[in-house]
Target: GNAT family acetyltransferase
Amino acid sequence: MIKNLTSNIRTATLHDAEAIAQIHICSWQKMYRDFIPEIILQNLSLKERTQQWRDLIEREVKVLIMEINNQIVGFASICPFRDFSADNSMGEISAIYLHPDYWRRGLGTQLCLAAISELANQGYKKILLWVFEDNIQARKFYDALGFEATSSTKLEEFYEGGALLKEILYQKTL
Model:
């Protein structure tokens, strides 16, 4: 396995929405198969997910794209923290996904560090993100990057009639 791939990180445009959606779906189907019912994962709609990403990009949600050889292989979306009593010093990594073919090569770390850097450049002093409680792989990833689990949790329903999953809030102070 090649570990040292040269990547480029840039801001997403509307043109990138379908590639983002494809990575989002593919990553969910692989990573969340133990948490979300298979029927829901198999019925994720590329058309709907593409439109969701177009809408987010049009609303000026910042989405960072990771490319290798001009091919999009991952993305991270960042925004002001969207949950309880947030103040303007708290930013959020609301999504971060790599295509499964690129997992375990250090690229997720590069992408997360780019998201952290962008949030710091925007003036945020604390970065927060939600992680499925049972997603041990993701929790170890964030621990290694200096994030800490907080005592805040929430139950989130993924798709109508879908799984009710517990998420833990992680934070990193800059």
